[in-house]
TrEMBL record:
GO terms for molecular function: hydrolase activity. It comes from Croceibacterium soli. Residues 34-226 form the Metallo-beta-lactamase domain. The keyword Transferase does not apply. It holds the Pfam family Lactamase_B_2. This is MBL fold metallo-hydrolase. The keyword Hydrolase applies. Keywords: Hydrolase. InterPro entries: Metallo-B-lactamas, RibonucZ/Hydroxyglut_hydro.
C-alpha cells in the first residue's frame, strides 16, 4: 500500500497570490504547496483519489497519474472539489462513469453545484456515478470506513483505507477531536491530519491538536497537511517527534 500526497497546502496555497511566502523559505521546494488531495494505492495498483483539489490537473501531471479507480470527497469547500472537471479525461475510454463517494450532505451539495458531472449534459456522458458512503464498505479492493468530523459550522468526512494488511487514515479540515475519530483511526500505519498553523483556529486543527490526535490514535506515522504560510518545512520538521512528518507535494510513503 502506498500514500501519495498530491497537495498539502491551505485553501490559498503557499505562496499566496502576490508571491506571499509568509514565514516559509521560498528556496525550499517543499514549501511550495498546492491545495490538499491524496491518492492511496494498493499493491495491485488500484488507486483511490481523495478530493478533487483546485490544483488537480497540475498534481496529476506532476505525479504521472493517468487514471484512478474511485474518488472520495471529504466535503464541498472549493479547495477540495473545484478541480472536479479534471476528472473528465479519466472518463475517456471507460465503459462507464468513475465511482464516486461522499456523505449525504456533501453528495447533495456537489450535485447542486456540478450537476453535469453526475448526470451528463448536451450529449456529454456522466463523468462520475456518485453514491452515498452509507452504502460502501469495499471499493477496488480497499476496505473503507468513515466518520464525520466537526469543521466549524459544517462537517468534513474522515476516511480509513485498508489493503494488503496496511492502513492509511485521512482527516483534513476539523477543529475538534471526537471519540469517534479516535476510534476510527486506532492503530493506523499512517495518519494524515489537518495542521493549519501553530495557533488555534475556529475551523482547523492547530499543531498541538494534530500531535495530540496522532498520539491518541496510536498511529505509527503521522503526516501533517493543510499547512499555511506560517509553517516553514525545515523549522517545523525540527520541532516535531521522529514519528511525525511534515507533508509536502509529491511525498510518497510505501508501506511494506
Amino acid at each position: 500500500m502506498k500514500l501519495l500526497v498530491l497537495g498539502c497546502g491551505t485553501s490559498t496555497g503557499v505562496p499566496r497570490i502576490g508571491n506571499d511566502w509568509g514565514e516559509c523559505d521560498p528556496n525550499e521546494p517543499k514549501n511550495r504547496r498546492s491545495r490538499v488531495s491524496i491518492i492511496v494505492e494498493s499493491a495491485a495498483g488500484a488507486r483511490i483519489l481523495v478530493d478533487t483539489s483546485t490544483d488537480l490537473r497540475h498534481q496529476l501531471l506532476a505525479n504521472n497519474i493517468a487514471a484512478v479507480d474511485a474518488v472520495f470527497w471529504t466535503h464541498d469547500h472549493a479547495d477540495h472539489c473545484h478541480g472536479i472537471d479534471d476528472l473528465r479525461p479519466m472518463r475517456f475510454g471507460r465503459a462507464g462513469p468513475l465511482p464516486g463517494f461522499a456523505s449525504e450532505d456533501t453528495l447533495r451539495r456537489l450535485k447542486q453545484r456540478f450537476g453535469y458531472v453526475f448526470a451528463g449534459m448536451y450529449g456529454y456522458p456522466t463523468i462520475v456515478q456518485l453514491e452515498s458512503l452509507e452504502r460502501v464498505k469495499i471499493v477496488s479492493g480497499f476496505s473503507v470506513a468513515s466518520c464525520e468530523m466537526p469543521h466549524g459550522q459544517m462537517n468534513s468526512t474522515a476516511f480509513r483505507f485498508e489493503a494488503d494488511g496496511k492502513s492509511i487514515g485521512y482527516a483534513t479540515d476539523f477543529n475538534t477531536i471526537t471519540d469517534e475519530m479516535v476510534a476510527l483511526f486506532e492503530g493506523l500505519d499512517i495518519l494524515v491530519t489537518d495542521c493549519l498553523r501553530r495557533e488555534s483556529h475556529p475551523t482547523h486543527a492547530s499543531l498541538a491538536m494534530a500531535l495530540e490526535f496522532g498520539e491518541r490514535t496510536g498511529a505509527r506515522t503521522t503526516v501533517l497537511t493543510h499547512l499555511d504560510k506560517s509553517m516553514d518545512y525545515a523549522t517545523l520538521s525540527a520541532e516535531i517527534p521522529d514519528n511525525v512528518l511534515v507533508g509536502y507535494d509529491g511525498m510518497q510513503i510505501d508501506l511494506r
